[in-house]
Amino acid sequence: MPPSQGKYARYLIFAVVGLALFFLSRRPLLLPDSTGPSLSPKPPSTPSPPSDKPASLGDSSEQSLNEQSSSEVLRYAATHPGGRANATFVTLARNSDIWEIAQAIRQVEDRFNRKFHYDWVFLNDQPFDDNFKRITTSLVSGTTHFGQIPPEHWSYPEWIDQDRAREVREEMREKKIIYGHSESYRHMCRYESGFFFRHPLLQDYEFYWRVEPGVELFCDIPYDPFVFMKENDKKYSFVISMYEYEGTIPTLWDGVKQFMGDHPEHIAEGNSMRFLSDDKGKTYNKCHFWSNFEIGSLDWLRSKEYLDYFESLDRQGGFYYERWGDAPIHSIAAGILLKKEQLHFWDEIAYYHIPFTHCPRDEQLRMDLRCSCDPSGNFDWKGFSCLSRYYKTNDIPLPPGVDEYS
Ligand SMILES: Nc1nc2c(ncn2[C@@H]2O[C@H](COP(=O)(O)OP(=O)(O)OP(=O)(O)O)[C@@H](O)[C@H]2O)c(=O)[nH]1
Ligand SMILES: [Mg+2]
Q1: pLDDT score at 405
Q2: Where is this region: Disordered (predicted)?
């Protein structure tokens, strides 16, 4: 063997042995600093699904929770130290949200973006003030962009009867339906459902990560989720799923069925209807992904399939005559327009938006990712969570002790 080839072979052996020692030593994970290509062997194309063999649910005193989950996540991280996707964070906010978004940015930066420097797009129906721009810009390690929403994207479409919309708000106020009285909340939900991805500031990006004021991240994020999305052809991803309040969407599923009838060509084969419906699409079980956290494909939201879907629902008026949230709108779209493999659940992203937390069960994973969440507060297997339906839909074994649909 020529000397130079021998040298490379030795480097390769060092790399493989080093990697093996790294996994055996199980020290806390050091996040990669480099953005160069990896010398490591090819990893599995996706991290393993969340562990299916926890010692017990929500019991942080148990040792040796399933190690598979942690080692798979770490292996993926070790073999994907860098690379970069065409992606941005995106936040819809008011000037008055400044301190809550400052807190959220700080956590996103500390846990992930300080190594990656992705941009951050802020959108508002009003102009952002200098205070908001100065503080957010000082916290974001990438470039900040501030956009004002065009009034036609944050107002009533001409087919809406505004008197009827006002009456509905008053009825919902009396019924104490959450945000049922609010006009701006409805504009917000419609904007997040059908318009944010069309804003000129987002045109050149392929992926987005939605961050809301006040949210928290509890674990280091060991690799670039945008790159993971790209490499694995994922279009929509979530950390928490749950049931929607019936009173906010009484006729939404009728609208969805009408769309499915009008556009059978848009409905994906091998979709996640099983997550959304217990009777093959006749009725909606109200399961949705909680959209205050999303990592998703802007190209998918800008696709003809999604735009036809949004347009069809928007025409029915339920954003104003009911109180349709952007979470069920996005989730149903992801459930019927995408193949189920194009969705992804992030077990390793520990997350809080008032009042629910996702905290990984695998203790080794929590140690390795320096998590600070209390696993007994994990929402995944509580009665209001839809995660077990997601597992069933994707043939992921449920952890022992979890009822099929708790
Ligand atoms: N610019 C602007 N942003 C808004 C307005 N209303 C809500 N938002 C933003 O839209 C997103 C969703 O609003 P939230 O009030 O958090 O709604 P929610 O998550 O359903 O309810 P919470 O439990 O109160 O958080 C957040 O990023 C808000 O900052 C508004 O009137 N103007
Ligand atoms: Mg919120």
Answers
A1: 59
A2: 34-71
Identify the residue with better confidence: 272 or 52: 272
pLDDT 10s digits, 137-168: 999 999 999 999 999 999 999 999 999 999 99
Q: Do 343 and 229 form a contact (C-beta atoms < 8 A)?
A: no
Question: What does the block give as tokens for 24?
Answer: 């055996």
Candidates 149, 161, 133; CA nearest to 188 is 149
- For atom 10 of ligand 1, which residue has the closest CA? 92
Based on the residue annotation, tell me whether 170 is a catalytic residue of this protein.
no
**From the alpha carbon of 292, which atom of ligand 1 is closest?**
19
pLDDT grade, residue 399 (50/70/90)? Answer: confident
Which numbered atom of ligand 1 lies nearest the CA of 124?
A: 1
Pocket of ligand 1 (CB under 6 A): 91-94, 97, 124-125, 184, 188, 212-213, 292, 354
How far is 293 from 291, CA to CA, in rounded Å?
5
> Of the ligands numbered here, which is closest to the C-alpha atom of 101?
1
User: For the chain, percent helix, then strand, then coil, each to nearest 5?
Assistant: 45, 10, 45
How remote is the CA of residue 353 from the centroid of ligand 2, in Å? 7
Query: pLDDT (tens digit, 9 = 90+) per residue, 204-263?
Result: 999 999 999 999 999 999 999 999 999 999 999 999 999 999 999 999 999 999 999 999
pLDDT band for 404, please (50, 70, 90 cuts): low
Catalytic residue of the set 72, 244, 294, 305: 294
Using one digit for the tens of pLDDT, what is the confidence trace for 56-68? 333 333 322 333 4
Q: Residue 121 phi/psi, 5° resolution?
A: -105, 125
Residue with tokens 């991240």, as numbered in its chain: 217
Quote the CA–CA distance of 396 and 274 in Å, as a whole number.
Answer: 13
Give the Cα separation of 42 and 3 in Å (integer): 26
Shortest-distance Cα residue to atom 3 of ligand 1: 93
Atom of ligand 1 at shortest distance to CA of 91?
A: 27
User: How far is 73 from 223, CA to CA, in rounded Å?
Assistant: 9
